[in-house]
Amino acid sequence: MKKELIFLGPPACGKGTQTEKLAKYFGFPHIDTGRLLRAEIASGSENGKIAQKFIDKGQLVPVQLVGDIIKARLKQDDCKNGFILDGYPRSLEQAEMLEGIKKEINGDEEVDFRATYFDIDTHILVERIVNRRSCSKCGEIFNLKSKPPKIEGKCDKCGADLVQRKDDNEETAYARFETYNHETAPLIEYYKNKKVLSSINADGTIDEVWERLLKVVE
């Protein structure tokens, strides 16, 4: 049976790390909305050009346009047996749009759709964000406490310098959580009402969270 998975949770809760592991485990594509949008822009497609105009003005890419880009990706052959969505949906409007996209793509096919909520205290997330570092070349993510680089200030994968994003500070982190709670948190209730939501404790090592995740998605 086709398996469709989405992850919910605030910034720095570990969704991205676990999504990549799970995609390899199942052999499904890991569809990161941010990367997908950047790739669309880089390709010079019509949707990419339109998205770039909004970004250049400092505006959010319209919901319908993001939905069109997601739909085109989910229609590709590598998604026939399943997919894992990372970073989408982010709002009730997007969740309802995703329902329409899935109906269009799946038709009468029986599908195992699940949403997993990464539950974790805000103060733990702020600590993660403040200690987060990323590779200036390949984008690999490290954490000075939970996943430190083998050589201080250098990426384990490519050896390039590690940098701290300008917005990885306490003030910005709390502002991001406010946005999340306002726009994205209602999705928890939305998927709970549809009886497709599972919650896992996202506090722990990568391996500990991985074991918890497997129990709810297999």
Q: What characteristics describe this protein?
A:
single chain, 218 residues, alpha/beta, 9 helices, 8 strands, 48% helix
Describe the 3D structure:
This protein is α/β, with parallel strands linked by helices and 218 residues long. It has helices at residues 15-26, 33-43, 46-56, 63-74, 92-106, 122-130, 170-183, 186-193, 206-217, and strands spanning 2-8, 30-32, 82-86, 111-119, 132-135, 141-143, 162-163, 197-201. The strands form 2 sheets. A 5-stranded parallel β-sheet has the order 2-3-1-4-8, with helices on both faces. Helix 2 (33-43) crosses helix 3 (46-56), helix 2 (33-43) crosses helix 4 (63-74) and helix 6 (122-130) crosses helix 7 (170-183).
Briefly, what is this?
The protein is of the alpha/beta class and 218 residues long.
Give the helix/strand layout.
Layout: E1 2-8, H1 15-26, E2 30-32, H2 33-43, H3 46-56, H4 63-74, E3 82-86, H5 92-106, E4 111-119, H6 122-130, E5 132-135, E6 141-143, E7 162-163, H7 170-183, H8 186-193, E8 197-201, H9 206-217
Parallel strand pairs: 1-3, 1-4, 2-3, 4-8
Antiparallel strand pairs: 5-6, 5-7
Helix pairs in contact: 1-9, 2-3, 2-4, 4-5, 6-7
